[in-house]
Amino acid sequence: MFAERTGYIIWVSDVKAARNLEKYGTVHYISKRMQYAVIYVNADRAEDTMKNIRRLPYVRKIERSYRNEIKTEYSKAEDKTNFYG
């Protein structure tokens, strides 16, 4: 079905050059103001891909996104919006 994907936040020094990250994975978002890009790559090849991206001259720092590890299913007992509304 779908391959397991891993997200990375890549801080760059040149936003125009960050468009070249398309060849390494799927670029989800590029922030011109804060100069970072959010990219999704296949999880089985993530380490090799990040090793190649680190070598690029415009990459300052790479952080792993923990979005897929955040709990997104909520139960009625934990929902506190009724108390504030």
Per CATH, which architecture? 2-Layer Sandwich
Low-confidence regions: none
Structural class: alpha+beta
Helix content: 10-25%
The level-1 CATH class: Alpha Beta
Silhouette: extended
First-to-last CA distance:
41 Å
Textual characterization of the structure:
It is a single chain. The chain is an alpha+beta fold and 85 residues long. It has a single domain, classed as Alpha-Beta Plaits (2-Layer Sandwich), CATH 3.30.70.80. It is built from three helices and four strands, in the order βαββαβα. Strands 2-3-1-4 form a four-stranded antiparallel β-sheet. The longest helix is centred in the middle third of the chain and has 9 residues. The protein starts with a strand and ends with a helix. The model has no long low-confidence stretch (mean pLDDT 89). Keywords: Cytoplasm. It holds the Pfam family DUF2129. InterPro entries: DUF2129 (IPR016979). This is YlbG family protein.
